[in-house]
Input
Amino acid sequence: MDRTERVTLTNMCMITNNEQILVINRKDPDWPGMTFPGGHVETHESFYESVIREVKEETNLTITNPQLTGIKQFYDKNDHRYIVFFYTATEFCGDLKASDEGELTWMTKQELQSQQLAYNFDRDLNVYFNNQLSEHILDGKRDELF
Output
């Protein structure tokens, strides 16, 4: 029995500075709206290194000591598993600069929750803000938090 499957690996990072959270208003037509910086894991790249690289590419900030907070998984339109590793970071340096991915804004948790969020990102926020949760599973049959 083959236990392998096609998987897309990605990451997302909630960067905080005291009560402020860095968000990106994505221009991506497939997933527009407010979310956190992040992107794809490259071949032979560690998850940890990938989140540092993606944050740098999208924000010009260099994060240090990102912490894995949880995961999200779903199946894409080709029925391939898609996994997002959720990270948090409070340590960073550099001058904030937006990329082609979208505009960047610092806001509070309350401000973020009142924005036009990317599809289903409100459910992802539960994993970030509730340390009793570590996983968001989303597929055609369920949308569950564990």
Remarks:
- The chain has one domain: 7-145.
- The first strand starts at residue 7 and ends at 17.
- The helical segments are 47-59, 109-113, 121-129.
- The first helix runs from residue 47 to 59.
